[in-house]
User: Fold this.
Amino acid sequence: MKQQKPLLIIEHCEPTLSEWLLLEYKHTAKLWKNNLLFTRVTDAKTKKILQKLGAVKKEKAKDLYNGKQCIVLDPQAKKQLTPPDCAKADALIIGGLLGYEKPQGRTKTLISAASGFQTRHLGPLQLSIDGASFVIKAISLGLPLKDIEIAKEIEIIHDPVHSTILPFGYPIVENKPVITPGLVKYLSKL
Ligand SMILES: C[S@@+](CC[C@H](N)C(=O)[O-])C[C@H]1O[C@@H](n2cnc3c(N)ncnc32)[C@H](O)[C@@H]1O
Assistant:
């Protein structure tokens, strides 16, 4: 099958494939269907799991796509991602990195700084991996970032006394946040 453009690349940077991370990867795979590549997957067990979701390579994106038109989605980028950027790109690269409440600039240190690729941001809020994948998909389909509603954080209510605040930006569709399928159940088990 001919590869559609742009390809979404997730550069897997976490040392382990946690349940939370896998839920975000699975959601991304649903959004990007067969147009998803995981890079920097060096461990055989992780490769076996991720092969069910997309193509998998052990190399880093910067080595596989050297000389190609790639854009790293980096919260520290100066320019925002636009539909024309997506139309020109061979691949859009996001970090397979779970967020901390206070962003630590790991996308830059682990991916974009040494890549030689252009960088773009998706607004001032730190999005989850699948949230970023959702927003990138919408932009690649022609929607400008300013027209995508993004909540500052969301609160998951488990019962009348327990809740979890997720301090990340979540895209809103028809007044509801786009939450990783399975995440609410996973959090309620913790
Ligand atoms: C949960 S974020 C991890 C961010 C990481 N903690 C950092 O400080 O760079 C996962 C990935 O989604 C993408 N992402 C999330 N929010 C973004 C934003 N506002 N602009 C650009 N990319 C973003 C980045 O590719 C990032 O590596």
In short: Residues 37 and 55 are 5 Å apart (CA to CA). The helical segments are 19-32, 44-50, 61-64, 83-88, 106-112, 129-140, 183-189. The chain is about 30% helix and 20% strand. The longest strand covers residues 7-12.
